[in-house]
From TrEMBL:
GO BP: any one term: fatty acid catabolic process
Molecular-function GO terms, alphabetical: fatty acyl-CoA hydrolase activity
Source organism superkingdom: Bacteria
UniProt-listed CDD domains: Thioesterase_II_repeat1, Thioesterase_II_repeat2
Protein's UniProt name: Acyl-CoA thioesterase II
Renumbered residue ranges of the record's region Disordered: 135-154
Organism: Brachybacterium vulturis
Length: 311
């Protein structure tokens, strides 16, 4: 795998370009009476030969957000991942307007790509429903962030993987547009030695370098970044690492609730735990806090997770 960029500012700016979709004509195959717009986006290289799920989800947030007024910000979204994306083809996002009320708007978007074979129909790789709301006053309460060391004193991914000559490790260390710093020891290469008692993990995250982008794209970046580490609490509890032989994982669904809207340029603390794993699936719950300790988002993800059976 060759990497086109090495400068952090270029990598972060490339994320904004990736999420900033171009408008295209709606496709008749997927059009409904509620269709209001369609957009198209490209993909960036990613280990494994498929499209990173967070990318498709972030682009879908941009697509639905383009169809509502700027005064209405996304407050929730629910995504189903239906098929792996092919980075060799652009992704089309077709948006349906399900509701426009006095203060809420609801949108549905299908992310599609050409079929694998020449005669195969366009296939859907992601389906998302999202709701938007105008800013309103109301009741307020929130959980506060747990105690955590400052991110500046924690090792970067590049430092955690220093000396590891592996294409995936090089990608994680040099190409991810999100700076991720583990409060709990990272499990890139080896299991958590405290897996018997590890019921949660914490990471700090922000863009690799500051970006200039409209508020909608900062919401899309949060969706993008939220998909990097949700499997890790499951791996921790099971005494596994990303390098466990025979490990297979894929996201099934992913939901986010925005409680406040923040800049992706600022450090966010992502606190995650896994309440359940069963039937070849694992569930994780995450809370995202800003630097002042305010809860800004809640995330849940369910994924398929399998290991090679012994014997």
């Amino acid at each position: 795998m060759t990497f086109p960029r090495t400068d952090p500012s270029e990598i972060a700016a490339g994320l904004v370009d990736l999420l900033d979709l171009r408008e295209v004509a709606p496709s008749g195959e997927f059009s409904t009476p509620a269709t209001v717009a369609a957009y198209q986006g490209d993909s960036s290289p990613h280990p494994g030969g498929h499209v990173f799920g967070g990318q498709v989800m972030g682009q879908a947030v941009t697509a639905v957000g383009r169809t509502v007024s700027a005064e209405r910000r996304i407050h929730s979204m629910y995504s189903y991942f239906l098929a792996p994306g092919d980075p060799a083809h652009p992704i089309r996002f077709q948006v349906d307007a399900l509701r426009d009320g006095g203060s809420f708007s609801v949108r549905r978007v299908l992310a599609t790509q050409p079929g694998k074979e020449a005669d195969e129909e366009e296939r859907t790789i992601l389906a998302m429903t999202a709701s938007f709301q105008e800013s309103q006053d109301g009741l307020e309460h929130q959980e506060r962030a747990p105690e955590a060391p400052d991110p500046e004193g924690l090792p970067t991914t590049a430092e955690a993987l220093a000396g590891i000559d592996h294409p995936v490790a090089r990608y994680w260390a040099t190409q991810r547009p999100i700076d991720i710093r583990h409060v709990t020891d990272p499990i890139y290469l080896r299991p958590d030695p405290a897996s018997d008692t590890a019921d949660a993990q914490m990471v700090w995250m922000r863009t690799l370098a500051p970006v200039e982008a409209e508020p909608l794209l900062h919401d899309a970046i949060l969706a993008f970044a939220s998909d990097y580490t949700p499997f890790e609490p499951i791996l921790r509890r099971q005494g596994l690492s990303w390098m466990t032989p025979g490990l297979k994982m894929a996201t099934i669904n992913h939901a986010i609730w925005w409680h406040q809207h923040v800049s992706a340029n600022e450090w966010l603390l992502y606190v995650q735990r896994s309440p359940s794993a069963s039937g070849g699936r694992g569930l994780t719950h995450g809370q995202v806090f800003d630097r002042s300790g305010d809860l800004v988002a809640t995330v849940t993800q369910e994924g398929m997770i399998r290991t090679r059976q012994k014997g």
